Amino acid sequence: MTVVLYATLGKYHPQGKGSEPFTLRLPCGSTVEELLGKLGLDKDKAKQVFVEYASCSRDYILKDGQKAAIFPPIAGG
Amino acid sequence: MGKLVRVNMSEKKVVVEPLPDQCEGKGGRWLTSLMVSEEVPAGCHPLGPNNKVVFAPGILTGTNAPNSGRISVGAKSPLTGGIKESNAGTPFPQKLARMGYTALVVEGIVDDDSRWLLKLGVDGGELVPADELKWKGTYEAARMLLDNYGEKTAFMLIGPAGEAKMAMAGIAFNDTEGRPSRYAGRGGLGAVLGSKGLKAIVLDDTGAPGVDPVDKDLFKEGQKKLVDAIQSHDVTKKGGALNSFGTAVLINILNEAGGLPTKNFRSGVFEGAQKISGEAIAEAAKQRGGAGTMGHSCHPGCIIRCSNVYAREDGSEHVSCIEYESSWSLGANCCIDNLDHVAELIRICNDLGVDTIEAGVTLGVAMEAGLAEFGDGPAAIKLLGEIGARTPLGHILGQGAQFTGEAYGVTRIPTVKHQGMPAYEPRAVKGIGVTYITSPMGADHTAGYTIAPEILAVGGKQEPLSTMDKVTLSRAFQETTAFIDSTGYCLFIAFPILDIPSGFEGVVQTVNGMLGTGYTGEDVGAIGKEILQAEKDFNTRAGITAAADRPPEFMRYEKLPPHNHVYDISDEELDKFWN
């Protein structure tokens, strides 16, 4: 699946490419929680994960071909 | 006792009076809305002799409470026809408050095409002819003011759009380095000053007595709690998202939520979002070096520092600053994904003295009308040039999105009460739609920022597409916001105080320490409610009824991709806001 790490999480990009999308292989039926675990992102670091234009719970089961957009705590206005 | 300055443009007189009793203990939006309600006939022409412009630093402005350098500006708006309060963070009100002034009222009107400058000192002020500033862009005018009155001078300016009485004209204040870049942008207040012939104000704070809290210990206790909350909350702390990427850090999350208005509100997703995001701005600052700066502050005492300076490829300064709203309005909303083009559009807006939100929404409508292609940055730059040249087309555009759309027969006009919608799609984020629709200010995200729980998971979490309890949510946010807008605190303190109770306590304690009052947490909402009601009553007297508390019709029948929702909070439900 495709993963994007936004804002301060860009430093966790496996190739050091900030917020550029990258591909990650996960076992079938993996959850958001497992995705974050694989990336080494704990709950404090990754505040929200958006898939299909909606914020997902940690037990959301990811599907092949989806994009996961991961955000730290952010705000603005 | 505070002082009130009255500047009469008809008689060219400046009078300092004691603050009326009913104004004591008030500041910011509380004071501007009260004074406009009491002194401005609601039925008056916004550009006529009976309108007044009220400037008021917040209750805490001028103290060393963190992030407390906001000024409110109020008047009857030429854009909405209703009451307006627009605020900005700048060193200007910090000096004004320390000089002992609680409010400054500009009234009357010039009877010719002359321009005037108000020089204000601790003991009073004078109006001096300023025709040398006539039609000058704000950058050149600011330079002239700094050359004449000193590099540290705090100033207010209007640009050529204000002088031409255009309804998208804002009011510029100096930033910490003397740029005319801190705007009370919304609602056409620059045009009201333009109608009065007041081009600029400069402050000489020599001998300023300063601002002293009544109960210093309580003030300090509250101040510490608020500082701790701001410095420990993930979004406002040093190195956090706001400090590192600026407010445009929101571009990507709104896009991923399907709520970033794109192509004049035809879609909630913009393909080029990443290129105009806070991450892209920070990367440019890193790669280009030179003047490029993140973590810039708009006034001394700001400990969040979300502003920035954007540099050209050669490292020279292009503009300060690229905010989320501007990057969206002049970027995604117009399908422009070139950050240098967006920066140039912002620079032109600042120079002309126009609100970047209204300008971007207007350009989106103009593109809809076929005046330029979506995505064509140079064509957008040329259209803003029409405003600067004051051509007939420039005068149409300068009146804002509603006027432009009507002039060209456009039906997709994203406004409420004639004010352009900001950077959050109401069909994808239902609560912010309630704020746009019900706020006495017209479509204004800052009036009740439900985005915090709906998108950012700050202050709880609410499902953005749900209509459930969104009127109640927006009302709570609008009431609290009206209070915060009166304190002088930056609205961004709301993020930490929503999550950290001691931070909220600190806000109430600093206000009580300053004034010697005994306000409780419950009073915050009650005061906010009183302010909102006064604003609503003004609008009612001005002829703005519940019929204006509606979304633009196209949002009722046009489904917005990717969620394919219409705006489905009913008129009956919206009417409950004021019940």
SSE topology:
The complex is a heterodimer of chains A (77) and B (579).
Chain A (H helix, E strand, L loop, with lengths): L1 E4 L16 E2 L8 H8 L8 E4 L2 E2 L11 E5 L6
Parallel strand pairs in A: 1-5
Antiparallel strand pairs in A: 1-2, 3-4, 3-5
Chain B lengths: L2 E6 L4 E6 L9 H12 L13 E5 L12 E7 L6 E7 L1 H8 L2 E7 L8 E6 L2 E6 L8 H12 L4 E4 L2 H4 L7 E3 L8 E3 L4 H8 L1 E6 L12 H17 L8 H5 L4 H7 L21 H11 L4 E4 L10 E5 L5 E3 L4 H6 L9 H14 L3 H13 L8 H13 L2 H7 L2 H7 L7 E2 L2 E2 L9 H9 L12 H4 L15 H18 L6 H6 L1 H15 L5 H21 L12 H4 L13 H5 L4
Parallel strand pairs in B: 1-6, 7-12
Antiparallel strand pairs in B: 1-2, 3-4, 3-6, 4-5, 7-8, 9-10, 9-12, 10-11, 13-14, 14-15, 16-17
Helix pairs in contact in B: 1-18, 1-21, 6-20, 11-13, 12-15, 13-14, 16-18, 18-21
Structural summary, described in words:
The complex is a heterodimer of chains A (about 80) and B (about 575). In chain A, about 10% of the residues lie in helices and about 20% in strands. With about 80 residues, chain A is an alpha+beta fold. Chain A has a 5-stranded mixed β-sheet with strand order 2-1-5-3-4, with no helix packed on it. Chain A starts with a strand and ends in a 6-residue tail after the last strand. Chain B has about 575 residues and is α+β, with helices and mostly antiparallel strands. Chain B has 3 domains: about 5-205, 4-Layer Sandwich (Aldehyde Ferredoxin Oxidoreductase,  A, domain 1), CATH 3.60.9; about 215-235 and about 425-579, Aldehyde Ferredoxin Oxidoreductase Protein, subunit A, domain 3 (Orthogonal Bundle), CATH 1.10.599.10; about 245-425, Aldehyde Ferredoxin Oxidoreductase Protein, subunit A, domain 2. Chain B is built from 23 helices and 17 strands. In chain B, α1 (about 30-40) crosses α18 and α13 crosses α14. The longest helix of chain B has 21 residues, at about 520-540. The mean pLDDT of chain B is about 95.
